[in-house]
Amino acid sequence: MRKAALHNLGCKVNYYETEAMAQLLEAAGYEIVGFEEKADVYVINTCSVTNIADRKSRQIIHRAKKRNPDSVVVAAGCYVQAAGSKLREDRAVDIMIGNNKKAELAGILEAYFAGKRAARQECVIDIDRTQEYEQLGIKRGSEHTRAFVKVQDGCNQFCSYCIIPYVRGRVRSRRPEEVVKEAKKLVAEGYQEIVLSGIHLSSYGMDFPEDKPETLLGLMEKLDGIEGLKRMRLGSLEPRIITEEFVEAMAGLKTVCPHFHLSLQSGCDEVLRRMNRHYTGEEFKRSCAVLRRWFDNPAITTDVIVGFPQETDREFGETVKFVRDIRFYEMHVFKYSKREGTRAADMDGQVGEPIKSARSDILLGIGRAMSVEYRKSLLGQEREVLMEERMVIGDEAYLTGYTKEYVRAAVLWDEALKGKMVKGILREMVNDEVMRMEINIL
Hints:
Strand content: 15-25%
Distance between the termini: 44 Å
Largest sheet: 6 strands, parallel
């Protein structure tokens, strides 16, 4: 039996696809081992969102070949699509598999071994031209209580800093019956929560023909009816999908978690225009107001990029004021990183690293304070928590899990509660990131 090890770089979609490839290899008779172990096959699901991600992808590829020079190293995914001839010259790579070809991994390996490794194999398509959604699926997740389900691929937005439309292609959606089928299997395996993920989740269904229309809301309504599913969480959304009608309908679904990630990137309209983001600050604010109108104190999280080309102190100051006004639960802050092949990489006025670092530190500090403030707003309230893992805080061992808002709560360690949905009162802060609660088993 050959041994295979897989390593994932990048987003939640990559994470899902790596799990799917591992299960495909397992079904084909491979033994799946840890990436640090000696294996016959190493599969690296690469990322290319920044130049740094490219470098990390190359490093992991070379690390695998060094670990076992006789192994077959498979480079898969976004960096393969982006790198082109550069990767073909890399002697550490034996097989290249681009996006929309990962489902063929087992067959590609079989052909490679049958050919006695006569030559490097390459399976990369022109991703810009495909309209087919790749049918990858999972039977179980790597987490014990929560499973990610990919429902969409590709992006048509072409933000000026982003390479993703060029390496993932145009919007392609998974048929709802396939999503429901996979979700039912996961629930039957004991998963109580699913997380819908995609490259541009808000675009789900826009590629379906007019005579067979589907929307993200329609998909959610179908999933909400699955018996045994307790929670449905959404990946990143664009602000413009948050309309009164959309949110009113979501609020009527029993499984939807009041935890919404809206991509901001900047609180300054001038920067948003340079980024080619398709909304204004006012539109973003209205979206947050709609969510808060229909959900009681929802957790709203976001991403912000600092140091985008030409960003002035005034523009950054507008972002600071904006995020304070919105009061996010959590805020992921990224220093702008130049990505070759994007319009932003060629813009004048590139911001220096010291300025980017200083601005990042300011927003990270604001984000930490807002996160604590949001958690404290839940003190004294009753919440359901899906108990997941052991955590040692100070001298005490706790069992921790997440509320529907994705706030971590804890009780003193009790193995019997692991994997159970419990209800209790959030009593106090154990630290800035964990809340203690008193529970009753549901």
